[in-house]
Amino acid sequence: MPDPALRTAIKNGEFILAPGVFEAISALLADREGFKALYVTGYGTVASALGLPDAGLATYSDMLGRISTICERTTTPVIADADTGYGGLLNVAHTVRGYEDAGVSAIQMEDQEFPKKCGHTPNRRVVPLEDMLRKIEVAADARRSDDFLIIARTDSRTGLGLDEAIKRGKAFAKAGADVVFVESPESEDEMKRICDEIDAPLFANMVNGGRTPLLSADRLKELGFSIGIHPALGFLAMGAALQKAYADLKANGETTDAIDLYDFGKFNDLVGFPAVWEFEKKYAQV
């Protein structure tokens, strides 16, 4: 079931800072830090699970399996990327129910044409506004709990301009979206205009190396955003750390002091070995 804490935090005007997670280890580590939400990134999940780009190649089933594991192993409310809803209106309804049953607290769906692409890459195209409004209506009707939030994203800024993106954002809110997400504004002034003109809780995407300026949580809240995600932080940090570690091993034939490793004992705790050892003490024959 969705966690009501996310809706309550937004209603109370709290700012929600959410790191991107993409598989169980990243989720377990982020869950310990006390964030108000975790964001399951489609880009990172597809790259981690399939080794492929975020270009509409992952299926609903590919994503749901990973998302279900993350929700099961964490206690923090989860916001999860659902791309375009994985198909037509019936698929949208099925996706909403599946994500909600998995324990997701907020689903993010966008107005791109299929196959979709990462929101900070070129050549994205969007569906007619009326088609996306229908998806929002279906998503709102399909959810079982009002604590399950619908985040509606428009990718129209890059191809059609900011005026169109704001127009769509306003329409999304009117259609029943709980949170509006205008993807990839290109300046702080554009971000301010989004907040000034759209009367709804708003979502900011802080992508390291992306099209949007990286602002602090305090500044995002000051502008008027309700949620700020850092979807790429985890997998970019992992990529840098693994590249350095593997290169060190190849160059030296062993791991040197140049590599900072997570303590093995603490990692055992992270993944739950103490519970296994307690079980063995109680039940296993020795």
UniProtKB/TrEMBL annotation:
Transmembrane segments: none annotated. It holds the Pfam family PEP_mutase. One of its GO terms (molecular function) is oxo-acid-lyase activity. It comes from the Bacteria. This is Carboxyvinyl-carboxyphosphonate phosphorylmutase. The lineage of its organism: Bacteria, Pseudomonadati, Pseudomonadota, Alphaproteobacteria, Rhodobacterales.
